[in-house]
Design goal:
This protein has helices at 2-20, 34-38, 54-57; strands at residues 59-66, 72-81, 87-96, 102-116, 119-126, 132-140, 146-152, 155-165. The chain is α+β, with helices and mostly antiparallel strands.
């Protein structure tokens, strides 16, 4: 049951990612705006990654561990490369809010940069408005798994992600 539940989340986020990366049904060029094709404009990049490093992080990940305070039941992380060669991501988190109701949050990840050996930093942006709401800092293991922290507003949570595909 858990794998089917996780597969549903992966499918939903993959569809969202395909829309963000312009892989959805084409829009007639005469009527299209940049926002139609790619969503809101992303903030300017302030850091860049070497092209040889980007493929090490590209792929699909599932949440395998988080702190209880995060109230997460599952999550997916998709990291891809955009047309300019920059790493771009979608983060989906599923869990419960403070009142016990199910909740889900989907974020964009942007402006990736290395802050040390095998340590990657990214800004966390809202999905629709491209407003920076936090930061992710992760370390990469030898098999590609990631672990680290996500800061959203004033809260910081520790987590671990398992790489399931290296697209």
């Amino acid at each position: 049951m858990q794998s089917i539940h996780g597969l549903t989340h992966v499918t939903i986020v993959a569809l969202a990612l395909s829309g963000l990366l312009g892989l959805s049904t084409p829009i007639h060029a005469a009527n299209a705006t940049p926002q139609d094709l790619y969503g809101p404009a992303l903030p300017a990049l302030t850091s860049h990654m070497a092209p040889r490093i980007v493929p090490l992080y590209r792929g699909q990940y599932i949440l395998t561990a988080s702190v209880p305070a995060a109230r997460l039941t599952s999550g997916t992380l998709h990291l891809q490369v955009d047309a300019a060669g920059n790493l771009i991501g979608v983060l989906a988190l599923y869990g419960y809010d403070a009142q016990g109701y199910q909740s889900s949050e989907v974020f964009r990840l942007w402006n990736f940069g290395l802050t040390g050996p095998a340590t990657l930093r990214s800004e966390v942006l809202t999905l629709n408005a491209a407003i920076v709401v936090g930061q992710v800092v992760v370390q990469r293991g030898t098999r590609g798994d990631l672990w680290g922290q996500i800061r959203l507003d004033t809260q910081t949570y520790t987590f671990r992600w398992h790489k399931v595909a290296a697209q």
